[in-house]
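Folding Problem: From Residues to Backbone Shape
Fields: amino acid sequence; protein backbone structure tokens
RECORD BEGINS BELOW THIS LINE
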Amino acid sequence: MKENKIKFAVVGCGHIGKRHAEMVTRDPGAELVALCDIRPREELGIDTYAVPFFADLTELLQSGIHIDVVNICTPNGLHASMAVQAIEAGCNVVVEKPMALTLADAEKVVYASLKYRKQVFCVMQNRYSPPSVWIKDMIDSGKLGKIYMVQLNCYWNRDERYYKPGGWHGDAALDGGTLFTQFSHFIDIMYWLFGDICNIQARFADFNHEKLTAFEDSGFVNFNFVNGGMGSLSYSTSVWDKNMESSMLIVAENGSVRIGGQYMNEVEYCHVKDYEMPELAPTNPGNDYGPYKGSAQNHNFVIRNVVRVLSGSGSECITTNVLEGMKVVDIIQRIYAQK
């Protein structure tokens, strides 16, 4: 039975990499076959995993170990080049958000995946949260009618407990910016629900991160949706002490909805014509990094999706494919072009 499992290697053994490794070992159709990080193994807290360890991606790919999937959980600025390298070596790829920091680099990943006929799974796990699944059905089914206005608010805390000296967080080349690292999940949800945006106007500020990061911590963004309606994004990591909210307010032809909580995990308001709100399953808690919190812990669904797609299970589709991952990079790049 073990031989039929999808074999994963995780590159980057920080918080998220260890979560990937844990979810792979929990999935009955998956097998963890290797780990990789530039830091010494004994510093990483990965003693639980009795698998070969490599200090370099090239060394891993040339090891002779059979690998079906490489999970890329390294700093943002390395995602695209490592994805291309893994694809060229004959592996499918799971890439953490964002898949790249520029549209040009994202296109290189798309090109490689098509050339070598390998699958790329972009990690946007908030799509699996019950409120996200519910509102996607509400919009796709037409229950809300025409979309008039969408307001996305993302107010989180990221302070010196997160941006530590010598780390990659806050670095322009490796981090990329607040929208890439903290809020690309929510831009993905917006794109997934409403499509592309145009006529972008934006203002940015750096209120309390001048000594911590190379980029802004806050912004107001206004735009139109290509499919109709208008929207706004307000975001900040300057919130004191802890995350405040990530919320989406939708005003539509047949009603209004607000999804809130720290990471869009609760339906706070639903008033829709001829519709009764069902009771939704609880959302998984956010990733817990001690002093700060991340998006929902849905990586188990990501790994299950990879296993089912690569095993040819039924008609399973990739939840967030490489073109969708590229589109999120494109949208963020166009927003930042307003600076």
